[in-house]
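TA notes, week 10

Several of you asked for a full example with nothing omitted. So below is the full record: structure tokens for the whole chain, then the designed sequence directly under it. When grading your own attempts, check the secondary structure regions first.
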């Protein structure tokens, strides 16, 4: 039975790969020399609407999906460059984990990670290498979870292969590069009934978790607007990506190709596909100035053009009428920013460049009461952030249960100040307890689809583009985001 299911799965996977070269309506592309999108679309009342495939027979929705609990999570890592080894190290600090596979195209990168296992007193893992070594790892019977931190170009091929072997997958960001790849992830998860989680670590940063908890408690009132960004001058990094995969990707693709840090935490606070959904977006790109210079310096034998604009700006509107503003810039010397901002009818939260909150006075009274020791809330000036004493009190009151449980250990283990560890810890915890994950395959698809959707808008004179409903109508079945705990 399992074998028949696997063969059927592989067949469907192969068929889906045969249809990779879809396009916008032929005439539009030919007339305007437009970018050919990964799926067909129509322009309806001025809005670009992409075709949405029906759910195939045998596939089931993954909303609130629970897999069989795993007493021990047996994990295999694929992609051990700059990012992957840190994950291996973090997993050695999580209870109920066995690290059974280490894979990189380059064997020495995988071998190097055995050191973390030695240090933790864990047995050595099997090493897999070469361009297709991941296939053996995915086929291995002693692996439940494939943790993918390869180049973007390899995320989906590895994830699809793993899911067809019945493995859960966790994929670095962005998990997919095109809308078609997003649908492939959704379909593979639904067909095989396995988890497919985006490794969006920013959802677990301390500020984001506290702020999410405040948002869910209604501290900000109705959240009408959010802002997110990934602004990071990658000049010192470009030459360190294996085989130059990142610059090659940027040289060939415009759009907000790294949108998930910016959009992920905002979608969680705004309950996207848990009562609201992303409706449509418009995007605009600057010309490429620094990008072109870098491409000419590093890739002159291949190309002298860079498709990717130096700065990408995107506006998204949700079905309920709220907005999200996103920025992406990895080309100019701006200070680092992973902007996370919530604008609510009752309050405001802001992460970069300055962390701060403002709250309506009655919210503060509820926290501080009329206690003599309480901060002087009457002295608040609403032209600036709330004073530190008030913020500290609010942060203590609204510390997220996950921070209470694991926050201190996370700071010790580390990974971007601990958020990477909290993310890995929650993944393992939910798998061990058979719980829905904090981020499901629809989050994975929605957040990752921003790359190509913004590109389609940009390449069509910033026309609005409808965001596909990857849940296929189930976006309103769950009322609000929930992080699950064992009873
Ligand atoms: N969430 C975060 O904060 C964060 C931070 C950094 C990077 N990332 C993500 O992590 C991923 C990896 O980035 P990186 O900076 O480590 O890049 P990198 O180039 O240093 O590492 C990628 C690794 O993948 C390996 N690889 C490529 N093809 C492979 C294949 N077929 N089989 C096995 N291994 C293969 C390469 O050899 C390399 O070692 C990217 O998706 C990136 O966006 C996320």
């Amino acid at each position: 039975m399992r074998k028949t299911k696997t063969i059927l799965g592989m067949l469907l996977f192969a068929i889906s790969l045969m249809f990779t070269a879809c396009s916008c309506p032929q005439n539009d592309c030919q007339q305007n020399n437009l970018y050919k999108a990964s799926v067909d679309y129509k322009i309806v009342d001025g809005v670009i609407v992409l075709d949405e495939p029906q759910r195939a027979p045998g596939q089931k929705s993954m909303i609130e999906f629970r897999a069989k609990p795993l007493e021990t999570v047996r994990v295999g890592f694929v992609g051990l460059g700059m990012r992957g080894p840190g994950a291996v190290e973090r997993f050695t600090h999580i209870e109920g984990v066995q690290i059974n596979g280490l894979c990189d195209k380059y064997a020495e990168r995988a071998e190097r990670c055995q050191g973390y296992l030695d240090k933790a007193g864990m047995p050595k893992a099997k090493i897999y290498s070469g361009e297709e070594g991941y296939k053996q790892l995915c086929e291995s019977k002693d692996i439940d979870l494939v943790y993918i931190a390869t180049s973007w170009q390899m995320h989906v091929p590895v994830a699809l292969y793993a899911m067809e072997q019945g493995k859960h997958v966790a994929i670095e960001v962005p998990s997919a590069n095109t809308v078609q790849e997003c649908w492939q992830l959704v379909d593979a998860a639904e067909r095989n009934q396995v988890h497919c989680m985006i490794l969006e670590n920013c959802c677990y940063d301390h500020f984001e978790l506290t702020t999410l908890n405040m948002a869910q408690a209604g501290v900000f009132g109705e959240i009408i607007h959010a802002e997110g960004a990934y602004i990071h001058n990658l000049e010192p990094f470009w030459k360190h990506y294996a085989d130059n995969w990142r610059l090659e990707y940027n040289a060939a693709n415009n759009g907000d190709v790294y949108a998930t840090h910016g959009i992920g935490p905002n979608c969680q606070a705004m309950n996207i596909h848990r009562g609201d959904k992303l409706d449509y977006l418009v995007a605009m790109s600057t010309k490429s100035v620094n990008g072109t210079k870098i491409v000419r310096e590093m890739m002159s034998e291949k190309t002298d053009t860079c498709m990717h604009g130096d700065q990408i700006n995107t506006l998204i509107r949700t079905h309920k009428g709220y907005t999200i503003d996103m920025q992406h810039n990895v080309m100019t010397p701006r200070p680092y920013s992973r902007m996370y901002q919530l604008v609510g009818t009752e309050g405001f939260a802001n992460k970069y460049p300055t962390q701060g909150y403002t709250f309506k006075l009655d919210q503060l009274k509820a926290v501080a009461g009329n206690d003599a020791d309480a901060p002087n809330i009457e002295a608040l000036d609403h032209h600036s952030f709330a004073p530190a004493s008030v913020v500290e009190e609010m942060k203590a009151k609204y510390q997220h249960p996950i921070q209470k449980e694991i926050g201190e250990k996370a700071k010790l283990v580390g990974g971007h100040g601990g958020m990477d560890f909290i993310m890995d810890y929650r993944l393992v915890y939910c798998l061990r307890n058979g719980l829905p994950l904090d981020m499901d395959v629809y989050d994975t698809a929605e957040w990752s689809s921003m790359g190509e959707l913004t590109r389609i808008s940009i390449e069509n004179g910033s026309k609005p583009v409808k965001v596909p409903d990857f849940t296929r109508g189930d976006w309103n079945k769950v009322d609000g985001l929930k992080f699950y705990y064992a009873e």
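The chain has a mean pLDDT of 92. Use that as a sanity check on your answer.
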